[in-house]
Amino acid sequence: MIANNGLEALEAIKNQKYDVIFMDMQMPKMDGLTATKQIRQDCCQQPWIVALTANALPEDRQLCLDAGMNDFITKPIQIENIMNIFARYTSDKSDKYFEK
Predict the structure, then answer these.
(1) In order of start, what are the domains of the chain with their CATH numbers?
(2) How many CB atoms lie within 10 A of CB 75?
(3) What is the pLDDT confidence band of residue 12, given thresholds at 50, 70 and 90?
């Protein structure tokens, strides 16, 4: 599913469970940071949220993590980065499974 803005992303997550969300940081109506904070605050099922941004400074990464995102990749997106994201997601889910 593709959401054109943060409000559409919030609406989508109310109607369907998502395991991983790639959240663009600069969207109209509601940016990715605000949408992520809202998801973390309001949603029972918590997806793995990955920031997508052209801003590659350490401060930008920290803003995303502080908002509640799990990971961060910069544009242009490389397939290796996407593969690494899913590897980290799978590892995190596996770790939580074995903690129980």
Answers:
(1) 6-94 (3.40.50.2300)
(2) 13
(3) very high
Q: Is the pLDDT of residue 96 over 70?
A: no
Q: Distance between CA atoms of 51 and 69, rounded to whole angstroms?
A: 7
Q: Give the pTM.
A: 0.87
* Beta strands 20-24; 48-53: pairing state: parallel
Residue with tokens 């593709």, as numbered in its chain: 2
**Which single residue is written with the structure tokens 């690494």?**
84
Side-by-side strand order, sheet with 48-53 = 20-24, 48-53, 71-74
What dihedral do alpha carbons 7, 12, 15, 21 form, nearest 10°?
Answer: -120
- CA distances 46 to 35, 57, 68, Å, are 13, 26, 10
CA dihedral 27, 32, 39, 3 (to 10 degrees): 30
Specify which residues 48 forms β-bridges with. Answer: 20
**Side-chain-facing half-sphere of 19: CA atoms under 13 Å:** 7
